[in-house]
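Design a sequence for this backbone.
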């Protein structure tokens, strides 16, 4: 693979602290002091931030001298559909800011929309649409905490087509409005 998924170091750090399964297979966390690499969702004790580096490709991380974590086993696929899900998630992460329809995703992976949605939900317990919403809201939360852009600018930048939908989804996933979230983060 070896492609960039457009996440900053701090965004990837947030994903491993949250043990976020959405990004498994898209990048790997390598710990310089232990020479071990993990999935973003690994439940092992978190290393110090200064001891971490990220890799997008499993072959690159192994070439750099790291060995796989025995707990999360990042080198093994746990399902025959892992590659498909990884491909869909990678597509969503790379295109979150665009208008993405299920047909676009199914064209990308070469499956019918119905079959793709069924397989994706079976593997992740979510539809591609809800997964995309989570990626967009993660990006919006990051932008709210690191920039001075308005909520409306962020809404469109992360790919929402309407502010009302952005506010509704943001509240559902973060239990606050974007403005409340920004205030909480600045105090925290």
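Sequence:
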């Amino acid at each position: 693979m070896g492609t960039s998924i457009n996440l900053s170091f701090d965004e990837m750090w947030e994903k491993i602290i949250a043990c976020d399964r959405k990004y498994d297979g898209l990048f790997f966390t390598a710990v310089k002091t232990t020479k071990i690499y993990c999935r973003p969702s690994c439940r092992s004790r978190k290393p110090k931030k200064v001891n971490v580096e990220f890799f997008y490709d499993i072959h690159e991380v192994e070439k750099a001298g790291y060995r796989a974590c025995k707990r999360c086993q990042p080198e093994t696929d746990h399902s025959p559909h892992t590659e498909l899900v990884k491909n869909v998630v990678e597509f969503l992460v790379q295109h979150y800011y665009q208008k993405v329809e299920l047909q676009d995703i199914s064209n990308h992976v070469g499956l019918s929309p119905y079959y793709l949605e069924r397989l994706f939900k079976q593997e992740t317990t979510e539809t591609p649409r809800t997964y995309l919403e989570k990626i967009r809201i993660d990006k919006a939360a990051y932008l709210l905490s690191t920039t001075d852009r308005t909520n409306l600018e962020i809404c469109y930048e992360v790919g929402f087509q309407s502010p009302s939908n952005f506010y509704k989804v943001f509240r559902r996933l973060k239990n606050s409005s974007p403005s409340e979230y920004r205030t909480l983060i600045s105090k925290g």
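The mean pLDDT is 90.
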